[in-house]
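USER: If only I could read backbone structure tokens as easily as an amino acid sequence. It would mean a lot if you studied the pair and described how this chain folds. Here is the record:
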Amino acid sequence: MPHATATFNGKVIAEADNWEYVEGNIYFPPSSVDQSVLNKATLTTDCPWKGTASYYNITVDGKEVRDAAWYYPEPITDKAAPIKDHVAFYKTKVEIKSELNMADDADSQYNNSNRAFLQAFIARSTLTFEEAKPLLAAIFTAHEKRETLVEDVTQADFNSYISAANNAISPFDLEIRSTYHQTTRSRIYALVNSTSDPITQLATIHTPDEISFLKRILDAMFETYNTPRHEVMAITSMQAIKLHKTPAEDGRQTQNGSETQGSAGQSLTMGQAEKMMKTLVEEGWFQKSIKGFYSLSPRALMELRGWLWETYNDLDEDEGEGESVSKKIKQCFACKEIITTGQRCPKKSCPCRLHDICTQNFFRTQSSKKCPLCQTAWTGNDFVGERAAISTQHKPAKRRNGSGAVTRRESPLAVEEDEEVDEIEEQQDD
């Protein structure tokens, strides 16, 4: 087999004569890779036939490139078994050389039907298998000059076209990734940028003032409306429009100490803020529920995963210093994906969270319905997502009168009011 190398910052970090070639990428055996330059990243992605990929950051002589390599620790099909633990590198981040000209081989398998599928995918930005079936049926009918019925399109057909598309778009820092919808558990495929910062991508089509507004919205979702008592991680139209102005005071910091509150730039008008929210839904970044809550879409969670994790969670180096690590972004205990809607452990200090559908499968195999981390009885009535806000709107919000006594009154802003009173009471308890 031809000799292959991977080089970063002038150093050969992988070298092998025996490697695997899948979807246009060389997978190096783990023994052929310099493990000292690899550091595990938080990013994971899913492939319908290879399984879940874990990622590495690469550091050579002080220069770092993030999410530059990936591997499959547990391939889910026999076809993917040969690449178990093998390491592949992004060709736009690491220089890959081989005596074999793989580009010609890939191009020979890529035809007009693949191009038509990719163009349709780009136009939609997200796709499910069910949505792809009529699309592929039409492409097959035109390409093969005979009618292909929707029910004749198989998952294998779809996987093949996804693989070919990924091979074609890889040189342009694009990738088709997939994740499960948090409520329906249907697999959603999305076209994402594999290298640049998502906020930088948005800056190419939105003004600096609009990006500043977007950052205020994200801070509201994952800071203001994401507290130990109420993990809403969603925002209503009214709450969003109220953020049209830049904050009066700068200096708000996220969990890891970086300022992301959109204090830079000029304020938007209320009309511009409302239009921006609608645009972000149309572009596939936000989704709006029947009850009027905006939250991140599956595509946004895929693309923003690393950014959210770094922006709103404390840094790992803080652990071990006797201080609790605050993590605003949490994972489902069962599927390990980011969770913004689902259920939580009734014990407020416990980090266990589960998607609704994951609870069904998880507790089916358990002897009792208890939290797997702290063994507290799992009620199914403690929520993550907009239900965390809705459930509090139906109970009185606690207020203190002039004498200091706690009174209650109905309020549509129960979440915010409860948080203020809860904070006071917790301080008094201490």
Observations:
- The chain has twelve helices and 20 strands.
- The longest strand covers residues 38-47.
- The chain has a mean pLDDT of 82.
- The radius of gyration is 24 Å.
